[in-house]
Amino acid sequence: MKSMTDNSVATHGADEAADAFAAALAARFGAKLGRAVAEHGEVTAEVPPECWLEVMAALRDEAEFRFEQLIDLCGVDYLSFGQAEWDTTDVTAEGFSRGVEGDGPGRFAWANRPRNVDIPHRFAVVVHLLSLTHNRRLRLRAYCGDDELPSLPTLTALWPSVTWFEREAFDLFGIIFEGHPDLRRILTDYGFVGHPFRKDFPLIGNVEVRYDPEKQRVVYEPVSSVEPRVLVPRTIRDDSRYEQASIERKQLEDGH
User: Fold this and answer.
1) pLDDT, tens only, 27-37
2) Domain 4-78+119-200 - what CATH class?
3) Across-strand partners of 128?
4) Phi, psi at residue 179, to the nearest 5°?
5) Edge-to-edge strands of the sheet including 123-131?
């Protein structure tokens, strides 16, 4: 069994290796890589969309990197990033209040978003790579330059397995992958309207499905039977038990 000292040494070694790898990425790609950050033994790098294919091809093919496997690709919607509706008030005689009037998802357009978070574009694509040769992982992110029609070049020519991942990001976020050989929905129905993982997508959806006995088939109609409503968000409550436990733990440590 490893001691705490052994674990600390291992963690420190992983952090040093991650820092060295981040520096190697910056030296190799220069301005073609936005920034490479090493945290918790892992490296995350940003890639300008115009350099997406070039950087990815180099990471796969060059002996210094050799990222043979693309493990995952997903989309991200930064609408309302940094905003919250959760309330953090203390207990009062009237109970806990619930913050349902805040700037939550779907309550403003991207153009009218709060400007307290430095996010250049609404949509981004995140990729996780694995190098079996060097036993190393890398996370990469590219922002889609067009907020209305987000798009990036497809990676299917480099990692054919990404085909389904890109279809999923298209289906759920509406991100277009230019050059994809079969870009169509993969999780929702072919007649689905909109992209359900966008943060302004209505919880009730855009259309409803029912069976029409006269037409003897399923038909799609605008939503009519569900009234829009605001869900009560989670409330973060201060609990005195945690503070008391912390005090008791400190007393025990001091007593020893």
Assistant:
1) 999 999 988 88
2) alpha beta
3) 72, 139
4) 90, 0
5) 36-39, 42-46, 136-143, 123-131, 69-77
Amino acid at 10: A
pLDDT tens across 102-143, in order? 555 666 777 777 666 678 899 999 999 999 999 999 999 999
Whole-prediction pTM value?
A: 0.74
pLDDT number for residue 239: 63
Closest to 43 (Cα-Cα) out of 60, 20, 73, 64 = 20
* Helices vs strands, H then E, count in the chain: 4, 9
Quickly count: other Cβ atoms within 10 Å of residue 230's Cβ.
Answer: 12
C-alpha to C-alpha distance for 192 and 231, rounded to whole angstroms: 24
> Which has the closest alpha carbon to 26: 2, 40, 7, 47?
47
Residue spans of the domains in the chain: they are 4-78+119-200
CA-to-CA distance for 213 and 211, rounded, in angstroms? 6
